[in-house]
Amino acid sequence: MLSVEGLESGYGRARVLFGVSLEVPAGRLVCVMGRNGVGKTTLLDTVMGVLPATGGRVTFEGRDVTRLRPDQRVRLGMGYVPQGHDTFPQLSVMDNLLVTLEASAHGDRAALEEALEVFPRLKPLLKRPAGFLSGGQQQQLAMARALVTRPKLLILDEPTEGIQPSIILEIEEAVERLHATGLAILLVEQYLDLALRLADGFVILDAGRVVRSGPARELQDEEVHRLLSV
Ligand SMILES: Nc1ncnc2c1ncn2[C@@H]1O[C@H](COP(=O)(O)OP(=O)(O)OP(=O)(O)O)[C@@H](O)[C@H]1O
């Protein structure tokens, strides 16, 4: 479904990604792991076109999307939830969802209800400005916004980072349920135990390169622990 080949990008003259390749097959959850600063967020931003690729290719459902804008990729079915809960703080929860619906390719209001079914905790909060939500609720809203576009692939950057434990579990369960419905997911996750519970496959980055990839069961290997330990 998503194919990344030899991807290169960075910030100005600073190169961060050096030829990253990975595949997310339809319906699979692939976890991108690696220590702080190895390029995980840069990879997701480049896959979505938030950052331009300076080399390599991103293919989604057989179509080369490397030069498309992020909104064009969203319309093709790539949903992105960047790090740090991307919401409009002054807008109500409902308006946050409506803005996304208006920008979506389908415009079907039923998608709002579907997204709220995944995150029922948001239902009593629809009138509240997003800026007044807790970190965990904002993360749920950010994910609900991505779901409103009815993505075929969901790209999540550390959805549990800095979030209180009770909500981490809800977010984990939501990811699990979405995966069970057949949604393909590309997930950046620091915690090995969470990756072990959720992933079908994994990719480990180090200094902007893929240093190991494989099926989730190999996450138990000693080498994987070594690559992830600080
Ligand atoms: N906006 C930016 N301008 C310049 N350099 C940046 C920018 N964002 C990130 N970098 C640098 O790019 C490298 C990769 O950062 P990136 O955020 O992709 O790593 P990461 O693996 O996602 O780390 P973390 O887990 O800490 O989020 C780091 O050296 C970082 O300092």
Plain-language structure description:
The chain is of the alpha/beta class and 230 residues long. The protein has a single domain, classed as 3-Layer(aba) Sandwich (Rossmann fold). The protein contains 8 helices and 10 strands. It has a 6-stranded mixed sheet, with helices on both faces. A 4-stranded antiparallel sheet has the order 2-1-4-5, with helices on one face. Strand 1 and strand 2 form a beta hairpin. The protein is globular. The relative contact order is 0.19. The mean pLDDT is 93. Bound molecules: adenosine-5'-triphosphate.
Give structural attributes.
10 strands; nucleotide-binding; alpha/beta; binds adenosine-5'-triphosphate; 35% helix; Rossmann fold; 8 helices; BCAA_Transport_ATP-bd_LivF; 230 residues; globular; six-stranded mixed sheet
